[in-house]
## 1
Amino acid sequence: MQGNTACAEGALAAGCRFFGGYPITPSTEVAEQMALRLPKAGGVFIQMEDEIAGIAAVIGASWTGMRAMTATSGPGFSLMMENLGFAVMTETPCVVVNIQRGGPSTGQPTLSAQGDMLQCRFGSHGDYSVIALCPASVQEMYDLTAEAFNLADRFRVPVFIMADEIIGHMRERLIIPDNVVRTERKALKKGDLPFQAPDDLVPGFPVFGKGYGVHVTGLTHDERGYPCATSPTVHEELVKRLVAKVETARDTIASCDIVNPEATKVFISYGAPARAVQQLLHDLPRNDIGHLRLRVVWPFAESLLAMFPEAETFIVPEQNLGQVAREIDRHTDRPVIPVPKLGGALHSPAELAGVLEGLR
Amino acid sequence: MTYTEWMREDRLPHIYCVGCGNGTVINCTLSAIDTMGWKKEDTIFVSGIGCSSRAPGYIITDSLHTTHGRALAFATGIKLANPALHVVVFTGDGDLAAIGGNHFIHACRRNIDLTVICMNNMIYGMTGGQGSPTTPVGAISTTTPYGSGEAAFDLGGLASAAGANYVARWTSYHVKELTHAIRAGLESPGFSFIEALVQCPTNYGRRNKFREVMDQIEYFKSHALLVQKAERLREEGTKIPDDMFIIGELVKRNRPALGVQR
């Protein structure tokens, strides 16, 4: 099955019943599969007038309690930024798939890139934190998309599938599990205020149409949900909680593969470049070469770096100019070597071996 | 029930200026809704950004106060995901016709089952009186200090052309007619668009020779031309003065609609 199709199938298996989006290469197959499958699964597919409207419709649908998703690529992702900030501020669970292509601007519509990794983390205005998953196989396009809905519901944040054109358009064998684990959205308790946060910092969700009478606004709001945009304390406490609910859980959200934890030279990868590292380790089975493959890039769990206590160097191949390498660099005193690759081609294992040679 | 039971009283006092027309429209809307026999828990208010869009915050039901211009896209998601809900959108001329213009056209085209009430004050009120797509030619605003040189949008005409099932225009003077029109919109399947011309004494009136609140309301009364009369004048070949505007029920039809509960 193709990666994009597997992504849609994973969403359906997780109970996603709403898709709002706009066609854009190289993500369109996700929308097409949802258009084919959702009506027969009792769900709703709607092609909106642009990506701004796509994510807006998804957020609206989520407030009715539905699991909802959109899929896009670079230019559409840029258009979604304001409403993604709205989803963060209103704590609306939703899943956004970005099949990354070469940018800036229209760039390379049909070729792979990972240039939106920092945009995903910081692209909307104001301080916030989100969750980003990076599949490196067709199987993970299915599995991680399904898991994205659990994380979105558990933390009430937008969760991103930050895939790339290579993984989105790759065809591999997919094993469809009999069922996927589903963590339900926690309901608002009777007597609790709608934005009153319990110990886990995530308020219960008041589904529209159930008599909660909740006012939801993108303005800074108090625990009642009422606009309170001029109090420095209310704003500071709200924004700090929105960040803390994700960041304090980063070690439990983290998911990765670790190869050769005793290694001194450690590759850190996510998405398509992971495949080149895996091939290199297959061709060059040496105990001094390790691999940390991140399935979750945001929130970045720096504790994972300590899984390689002997590490002397971290090598980070990315299809951008070193976006996640920069994040790794600020968490370690060991040298971090970015291996940037632009233009759409994947790093070759020989290229990565060349980096190792350069270390000597 | 009375309409006051739909108010979220612990949110008062509201943000509207003395003499603002928005309260009249909220009052007419809640009065119309109250006659529908709808339950509060089945009714959702959605809005964008601007003075008009603060209205859902003063109403007791579930409500979504969204981003500038995008209310119709959010409302589309809510309505399609749960067609059993009654979804009412409050918007303004800047929110709907400028930044949200594309969503407006497409919501009309889809004829999605929403009732959309536009408080058209012909100005950006909340940001301090900048020109909007409905600012009349020659009108003074902070961004048209020498008079607006652009043609104003005919929102009702736009909604009609784009496919809405129900379109009406009234003003804050025509309280009973406006209430009836909103009621007709709530009853109609498909996209219902009710434009309410409202006075903005703070940011429109005082710059445009409406020294008192009542001056602009009197203007609405004296310059409104009922759609039936306008048609008669056209048939007679009589020219309609440029400063007159058409009010009344502009469209009522039954095109196939989206999001209607089966």
Note: The longest helix of chain B spans residues 22-34.
## 2
Amino acid sequence: MIENRSFSSRARVSIIYCIVILLGLVCLLPLWNIVAISFSSSAAVTANKVGLAPVDFTTVAYKKIIEDSQFWRSFMISVVRVILAVILNTVLVVLMAYPLTKSTREFRGRNLYMNLLIFAMLFNGGMIPSFILVKELGLLNSIWALVLPGALPIFNVILVMNFFLGIPKSLEEAAIIDGANPLQVLIKILVPCAKPCIATIVLFSIVGSWNDFFSGLIYIQKPRNYPIMTYIQSLNVDIQELLKSGMSSSSLGNLSELSNKNLNAAKIVVAVIPLLLIYPILQKYLITGIVMGSVKE
Amino acid sequence: MRKKVIVKGLVVTLITSLMTISLVACGSGNKKEETTKESSQVNIEAGQQKGGAYEEEVTITLGRQTLQNAKLPDGDTYEDNAYTRLVKDVYNIKLVDEFEASGDDYGRQVSLALSAGEIPDMMKVATYDELKELYENDMIADLSGVYEDYASDYLKSIYDSYEGRALDKVTFDGKMMALPGTNVDAGPSEVWIRSDWMETLGIQVDQDGNHAITIEELEMVASKFKEANLNQAENVVGMAFAPWLTSGDPDGTYSMNSIAYALGAFPKTWLESDGKVVYGSTAPEMKEALSVISKWFEEGLVDPQLGTRTWDDISALLSNGQTGITFGTWHIPDWLLNNVRVMDPNATFEAYGIENAQGEVSCKHNDAVAGYIVVSKECKNPEAAIKIANLFYDTLVTSNTIEKDYPEVATYIANGVDGSTRPFNIEVNLYTSLLDDYSDVEKFVSGDISIDEVRTTESKNVSSSIQKYLENPTGAEVVDWSKYHSRMKGIELIQTFTENATFNWITPIFPQTTTTMETNQANLDKLEEETFIKIAIGQIDAEEGFNEFVKEWNKLGGKQIIAEIEEQLK
């Protein structure tokens, strides 16, 4: 009986490992292919010869990127955007989450606020009303249009709120008895305890705002000022669609030069590097952050 | 309501004409002061026409469709480049971009501006439906008056060369609501065959020398190429087609259009005779064309991966030398076949048409219009749109002294800076411009005229490129190879067919989007493409499958759409 169980459990574990490894490869291989393409010659890429190893190894694409002023301009715009977004998101989320941990006895409007948040999380005005709002606020074409509309990620509020609820109440009570006001309780007691959770939401907002390209497309009306991901998606050209639009042959020529796949692959690789660097640093918090936040006392 | 519109229209016309008169007055007044300055700086022909430079700087906001790879020199932007500076110099107009975006993203910006109810002074819209929406929402100005007064004779003659097909499209209730971009006929989908391979194998086609080959000849070349496999490639392919098989454009690249047209089938085309509308893809001739492909597929002449082979995959087949036959518009050597030459310096192509049983090559007229420039109702200087058009589609095109007059612009043209950097990203060309430009190149190449006699700067660049290629075909740069092939093969073919009256021209109709089209067209297109691919790869029988498709197509809204189009035509 016991042997049988251990056999079956071992089998189960190995099956699970196989599946996980397979899934891991499914995620890794396309990225690896992009890396291989970025180091291959343009001719080999056009001929569809590149698989997992670079063909005719060359770093010419990376040399070109170093000279590409638009790429670095967009890159820096994204860096600034991420810094602003992280600061704003973290501060606002923590400030919003703390009051919501209080019972309705202590904070009478608590449920109303909570419902409003959840409502706003599930439903939003849609693209056009959001655009008109941003326009009327005069934010169009500024970096704030990329940062402010997503300044308070509600999912993160709930995450942090649940984490706060998981911290023993006695800690907070002890601090109050020692004379701390609510702000001190939050900053000196709860925030240090919630470090893993806060690291998680920081990671979320870094990844989210670095990878988001759509708000750049809508709110930034000059391609020169696109953030990096919007810039990269604009390089992805569908020539067969453009053929229908009566485009001149010289424009098509210019465009087909652009579908220089190894250069674009190199751009993708460079754009992914910041995330690859940040992930290992924050990842150890990521798992504890989500798990611990999900259980409350 | 109707009355209101008319009254409004009248008021607007009145105001515009008043403004025009006052401007004319201004124009003549400031001319004296400005002439000396202008003529010393640049020879401004546009200034001699009615309405030269504004006395006070006029600011115009624009919505502009950009290109990702505009090749602007360092420091120049869409807003500040040789062309916008030219507009400032010539007319004292400052151009400010309200929004810029490329491709589909531009369409989204236009829709957003439309729904926010604020459009820039002037902008490009890509589709007729957008233009109509703008007109119905009373957001754009009537240009009839300013066009009449300000458009140069040459600009007018360009639009007139389309015999009304261009201007009718922008005329609503007798008012001209936009400057249309023109779309010249691009000719047929040409068959591009590796001529270096044909030479090696000693293949002879086109015995009658009319540059059109029969379907049987095409089949013969494909099978010989496949058998010989000159490039010793793995997985040789006779002929490859894109998964959508047919194209609504006559010159559809990687499509089977040329084969279909030769059999009298006009896929994705609305045709009309005696008030009856027919959809080309459902005609019995289409069944025949599909049977040909399906027969070839069975024999292994057509790509065994038909249906899953993407656009990029087909380009790869060509550059790897896995296939030596392809189908496409005259300018594919410039941006698609150039990859073949990069991989194989010996590669050369010959272009052919496919003839029908009568020895004719069928071809279809394009929609005469592509893209529109609209002027906002709020814009205080609607005539500026026409002035800018005069400058870019008349002065700059007709002048062959650009190097001297506008050196900065000449550098732009020579360096291939994209045309989208001009204030209006539309093309306005004479209906015959393709062959007109080519005739200069041809005369130069055959030694009839000197390079200085070539009329436009663009043609001059092309001519010298071709000369370089002819001096040293195997050692020439890829770009010279491309220019030679696209002009001396691609356009030459259209020229030959035109001269010898080989063309059998079809004039389709270009209906507006009907209500059923809005809801059902996407599904109908999907049904069509799926069925055609299934027939081509023999998954369903041509005879039965096609009849079933026609029935289904009519049932799913096709019949309704035809009725709606017939209603439009009345």
Note: Chain A has a mean pLDDT of 87.
